[in-house]
C-alpha cells in the first residue's frame, strides 16, 4: 500500500502551535486510513545543512521515503512529511509508512529538500539508506546547497532596509574584561562582509580577530545576520542607513551600535584560517575563498613558495584549480597593473586537497559530533594500517564533554575543554593492547599530539589542532557518510 503521511515530531524549528495542530490532524487522518490494513511504523529523521544561512520565513521542508531498488525506473514513494515555515535547522521528525509495503529484498532511502517558495535551497545529494539490507529505521541527513543564479542573490541583497552598500560601520563595544572591543564591519551588496575586532585593555589588549562570510536579511526583524567563519552568527538591526544595533542570542536589542557615513573604507583582515581554490598561470597566482566566492591575487611573500610548490606538484598543469588551506591575511598590495589590490598574504601553507571543490566547503564542520579522520600528526601523514580501524577523533558535547581517539590500535579517551578557538584534551585511560609496528610509533605520536593541543581552527571539512605556539600538530578531515 502506497501512502503519504504527515506525521511529525517537531522541536525548536520555528513551527507555530497552530501549524503543529494542523500537521497532527493530517497525520491522524493518514494513519486512520492506513490502520485499516496495518499499523503504521515510522522512520526517525534528523535533517540539517551546514551553511550558516537563515532560511526565509516561508521555507518548507519536504522529506520522502523512497523505494530505490530499480535504477531504470522512478523511485516509488512510500511516505512523506512536510513542514511549513520550517525555521532553522536541525529538523527532527518522523515519516510514517506501511510495513506491509516493505520488501526485504528492496532498497529504501530518505530524501529531504528545503524549499523557498518553489525554489530548492538545500537538498539531499547522497544515498541515505533505511530499513533493509542492514540499514536502521533512523536517518541523519546533511543537505547541500543548490546553486543559485547571481540574479537571485542580487534580489535578496536588495533587502538592506535603506542601507547604501558597499559601506563600512565602526564602533567601540563594551567588554566584560577589557576596556572595549573596537569593531570595523564592511558590507557589500553581493552579501559579502569583512569584520575586524581589536581588543583594547585587559589581558587581550591588542588582540585582533578577523572574520569574513555572507550576510542574509531577516525581514521580520529589519536585521542582517552575519554568517562568518566562527561558530555563532551575529545579528545587527538596521536602525537607519548609518546605524546598526546589536541583537543578542536571545533576540534582545542591545545598546551597542556601529555607525557609518555611507562610504566604504575597507579594513585589513589578519590571521585567518582559509580554504579556497588556487590557480596559477604565467607566474601569477589567484585564490578564490570558498565562503564568499571572492577572488584575490596571492602576494609572493610569506609562505608563498611552499604554496606554489604544492600547486606545481599536485596539479596537471597551469590553470588547473587546486583546493588549498592556508593561514593568511587579506591586505592591500601593489598590483601588476593599476591601483593596489587587496591580496592574500600566506602566513603559513597548511595543505592541498586535490579533487576537492568549494561546493562542500562553504560551511564549517562542527567540532563536536563529527567523525574526524586523522590525516597527519606532528607533520607526518597517518596511514591506515592493514586490518586496523581508520585513525579518527570524535568529540561529544554534554554536561561532561568527552573525546575518543585512535590510530587503529588502542582507543584513548578523556575529557576536553573548548572555548572560542581554545581546546585542551585531558589524556585519560586507554585500552592496553600491544600495538605492532608501525602502529606503536604512530600511537605514541597521537598521545604526544593530544597532550600538546591548546587551540584549533576549522575551515570547511578541515580541522587543524595547534600547540601553545600556534603550530599545527594535527590535520583532520570531517567524514559524514559512514
UniProtKB/TrEMBL annotation:
Keywords: Signal. Residues 272-359 form the NlpE C-terminal OB domain. Residues 365-474 form the DUF306 domain. InterPro entries: Cu-R_lipoprotein_NlpE, DUF306_Meta_HslJ, HslJ-like_sf, Lipoprotein_YbaY-like, NlpE_C, NlpE_C_sf, Pilotin. Pfam families: META, NlpE, NlpE_C, YscW. PANTHER family: GLYCOPROTEIN/POLYSACCHARIDE METABOLISM, GLYCOPROTEIN_POLYSACCHARIDE METABOLISM. This is DUF306 domain-containing protein. It comes from Pelagivirga sediminicola. The lineage of its organism: Bacteria, Pseudomonadati, Pseudomonadota, Alphaproteobacteria, Rhodobacterales.
